[in-house]
């Protein structure tokens, strides 16, 4: 019998699979979406062009419901959201998890000491590089802002960030095989796919992205134990664009992080959010519709560059958002669809969101040629998703990611992480995936 089935081939599933095969375990990865062309371009533009149609093709099989205008950034294909990501690799602020521990979060009691070593291993596996200071940093300094360089997961030998699909695995990745539930039998665990295929293994790792992982888990448990609603934490995102006279564009360097800038909040600050700045980029690299929305013709665009400024801070940890699996509305695979339960921003979120909007617009106005050439493109006060969901299965697992009600099943993605933190979360998620995979490997030894 196979040792481990890994569900999902995104960042967390891929790293868990890699760690387990390194420990001598036989692994099969089941990916719900399509595969990718064998060779993906190594430059940013060519890569984005090649993966965009695949990354965007989230069809009826993955339908969801949400209040009007709600955007849920997700990918259902080999590599998951790393096909869209910016590759930012941020080390987690330790005090964040300490604060959560004080409020009773079960995972992980020893995070501050335990995660550190896994962060370093994740950085090695994801070839994380620190960028160099460049004209953008000098420009920000002249405007009175002290910014650090980008740390990025880099595809070595190329000019783009790494994706989970670039991490080489010896194990088979079987695409177009969405798993709908796990059954426990006396022989082992069985993963049932949407086509009715039953695959057995001694252990299962769930890394299908936090809401999917929660859906698979809920529908694997006896009906009486299922929750109607699950909690979810995410990021509020604010974004602004600044139009400036044409400046020389920064190019993604070979083997290194691109020259973007980041500003972290001091741990003592009450409003915890990170600000990121990217640019200058030629304005004509935006598509025709975006240019039209900004009021520019292609000819005018050729004389301009733009900067983008983003801010991200966490949704209210004290009042999580909620998702329910709605049996009245089935998706294309016959499963209850996730429904994002509408709610107004809490006071904490409203206050944070306002400060984030002010920050991105203020900085964009400084970078733009005139005040009128700075626009808010993402309003932190909208009820939306940052695409950084976490914490959907906290009460289902122990501190090693082991599902208490389904022995042998492990949660290795953000579903088992109690905070999206005040910055990009994926390095934390990657480190946790390795930590959980290691606990699983140890459980097999014993
Ligand atoms: C536009 C965008 C930009 C981002 N940029 C950054 C960044 O710069 N830095 C950063 O830290 N984070 C970034 N993020 C977040 C980051 O991409 C995610 O945190 C990370 O990719 C999560 O990895 P994952 O493996 O948990 O989930 P995913 O990447 O979502 O992977 C889940 C995988 O499981 C598969 N799957 C789903 N359901 C099933 C099923 N039932 N059966 C089998 N397979 C299934 C999916 O197809 C997918 O391949 C970004 C996110 C977005 C949307």
Structural commentary:
There is one protein chain. It is globular, with a radius of gyration of 22 Å. It contains 10 helices and 18 strands. Strands 1, 2, 6, 7, 8, 9 and 18 form a 7-stranded mixed beta sheet that branches. A 6-stranded antiparallel beta sheet has the order 4-12-13-14-11-17, with helices on one face. The protein has a 3-stranded antiparallel beta sheet with strand order 10-15-16, covered by helices on one side. Helix 1 packs parallel to helix 10 (426-445) and helix 4 packs across helix 10 (426-445). The chain is α+β, with helices and mostly antiparallel strands and 446 residues long. It has one domain: 3-Layer(bba) Sandwich (FAD/NAD(P)-binding domain). It has helices at residues 11-22, 44-56, 94-102, 111-125, 135-142, 210-218, 288-294, 298-301, 347-367, 426-445; strands at residues 2-7, 27-30, 128-130, 148-149, 151-153, 172-174, 179-185, 188-193, 198-206, 229-232, 235-245, 261-263, 273-282, 304-314, 321-330, 336-340, 374-378, 409-411. The structure holds flavin-adenine dinucleotide (FAD).
């Amino acid at each position: 019998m196979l040792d481990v089935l890994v569900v999902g081939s995104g960042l967390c599933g891929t790293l868990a699979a890699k760690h387990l095969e390194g420990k001598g375990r036989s692994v099969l990865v089941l990916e719900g979406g399509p595969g990718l062309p064998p060779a993906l371009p190594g430059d940013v533009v060519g890569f984005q062009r090649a993966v965009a149609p695949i990354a965007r093709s989230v069809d009826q099989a993955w339908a969801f419901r949400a209040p009007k205008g709600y955007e849920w950034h997700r990918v259902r294909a080999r590599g998951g959201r790393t096909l869209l990501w910016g590759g930012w690799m941020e080390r987690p602020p330790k005090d964040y998890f300490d604060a959560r521990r004080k409020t009773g979060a079960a995972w992980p009691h020893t995070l501050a000491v335990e995660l550190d070593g896994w962060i370093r291993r994740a950085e090695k596996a994801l070839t994380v590089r620190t960028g160099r200071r460049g004209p953008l940093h000098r420009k920000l300094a002249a405007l009175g802002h002290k910014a650090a360089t980008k740390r990025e997961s880099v595809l070595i030998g190329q000019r783009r960030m790494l994706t989970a699909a670039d991490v080489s695995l010896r194990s088979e990745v079987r695409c177009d095989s969405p798993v709908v539930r796990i059954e426990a039998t006396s022989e082992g665990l069985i993963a049932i796919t949407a086509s009715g295929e039953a695959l057995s293994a001694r252990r299962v790792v769930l890394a299908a992205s936090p809401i999917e992982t929660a859906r698979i888990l809920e529908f694997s448990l006896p009906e009486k134990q299922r929750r109607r609603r699950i909690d979810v934490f995410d990021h509020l995102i604010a974004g602004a664009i600044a139009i400036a006279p044409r400046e020389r564009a920064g190019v993604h360097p070979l083997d290194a992080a691109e020259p973007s800038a980041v500003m972290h909040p001091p741990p003592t600050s009450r409003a915890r959010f990170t600000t990121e700045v990217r640019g200058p980029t030629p304005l004509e690299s935006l598509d025709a519709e975006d240019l039209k929305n900004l009021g520019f013709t292609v000819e005018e665009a050729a004389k301009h560059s733009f900067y983008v400024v983003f801010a991200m801070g966490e949704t209210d940890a004290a009042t999580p958002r909620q998702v329910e699996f709605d049996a009245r509305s089935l998706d294309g695979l016959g499963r209850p669809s996730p429904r994002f339960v509408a709610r107004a921003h809490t006071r904490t979120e409203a206050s944070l969101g306002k400060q984030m909007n002010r920050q991105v617009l203020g900085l964009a106005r400084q970078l733009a040629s005139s005040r009128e050439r700075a626009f808010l493109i993402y309003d932190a006060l909208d009820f939306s998703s940052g695409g950084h969901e976490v914490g959907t299965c906290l009460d289902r697992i122990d501190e090693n990611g082991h599902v208490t009600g389904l022995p042998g099943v492990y949660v290795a993605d953000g579903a088992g992480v109690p905070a999206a933190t005040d910055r990009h979360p994926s390095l934390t998620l990657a480190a946790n995936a390795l930590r959980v995979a290691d606990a699983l490997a140890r459980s097999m030894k014993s």
